[in-house]
Design brief:
Blueprint: E1 5-13, E2 17-18, H1 21-26, E3 27-35, E4 41-48, H2 53-62, E5 70-78, E6 81-96, E7 104-112, H3 132-140, E8 148-152, H4 174-184, E9 188-193, E10 200-205, E11 214-218, E12 229-234, E13 240-247, E14 254-258, E15 270-272, E16 278-282, H5 290-303, E17 308-315, H6 316-319, E18 328-332, E19 340-352, E20 355-364, E21 367-369
Parallel strand pairs: 8-10, 11-18, 13-16
Antiparallel strand pairs: 1-2, 1-5, 3-4, 3-19, 4-7, 5-6, 6-7, 9-10, 12-17, 13-14, 15-21, 17-20, 18-19, 19-20
Helix pairs in contact: 3-4
Length: about 375
Amino acid sequence: MIKGINLTLMIGPGVPVPVPQEALDALTNVEITVASGRASGFQLSFSISTHSPIQTLLLLAGGGSLPPLMRVILIATINGTPNVLMDGVITNVEVAPGIDKGHTTLTITGEDLTAVMNWIDFSGFPFPAMPAELRVLTILSKYAFLGIIPMVIPSILIDVPIPIQEIPRQQGKDLEYIKSLADRVGYVFYLDPGPLPGTNTAYWGPEIKVGMPQPALNTNMDAFTNVESLTFSLDAEKKRLPVLMIQEPISKAPIPIPVPDVTPLNPPLGLIPPIPKHIDFISETANLNPIQAAVIGLTKAAQSSDAVFGSGSLDVLRYGQILKARQLVGVRGAGMAFDGLYYVTEVKHKIKRGEYKQDFKLARNGLVSTLQSVPT
């Protein structure tokens, strides 16, 4: 589609296959959204004729007829390196007839494979003598046929229930139950497509804001500028201070303990954080031991620590690679207050014939970089 970039579209029941060239030629627009805290989604637009076989096939898939699982995989190959952008299922198909028979617009909407985990209610399924980690692995094993590979990080709050006292049972569908188990220990759950087509990593663990940053986003740097737009804002209202309520074991008196938002997995990316204006009292930790309460408190603090936010857009060819969500990225040229490292909270891929752009959102805890220089 673009010089240096090739797009591969695979569609099929269960195991997708590359679409014929006729379908790829009819593809006019691709949008993929990947964001922290929610499922990824995609939308494909085709310009076809009224009698095109592509329309009949995809309408059957989107309308719930056989096969029930119509899978879509999108791969962008940049300078010979394949990047799996999306692996999901079709959830909706819309047709907008044009003024003539040759300009019908077919729009396909879908979500990542977590949508499959939200189909069947398994409420009541028992997990005898299983901590939360093992329950998650057991649930994810049902989806191995979709190429889902679990990456489950054990929590410090490992609690093995004694069968003669309690047998945990699933509440709701697989996706909501896995997320509820993650919330109890301050974890996140999401699917990351790849690294190979047809495989996905199911991550259940802490949200990690450390690691090797992606190439820096440069603005106001003349020939070195690699973004089309980039704006920042400071929203001190979003900064909150969690306060744990611990119960003294002898007198049963409540003891409030403020919790900092700095952890080994959530280091400060800004040197000057705003003073929190809101205090959130966490009462559900009253009956927990100090270690368990501290883990929950630190997680709550990390979730409400961001106060500086950025948004912008870039051209992938000029940037040199695909900007990925849920990772760090550097910013240069925005001034002393806003330069430095940020966590990429959302990325939207926008692909058209001859064009590949991305909209993105960034976040960190405060102003002024904690680094003297930003990695390029």
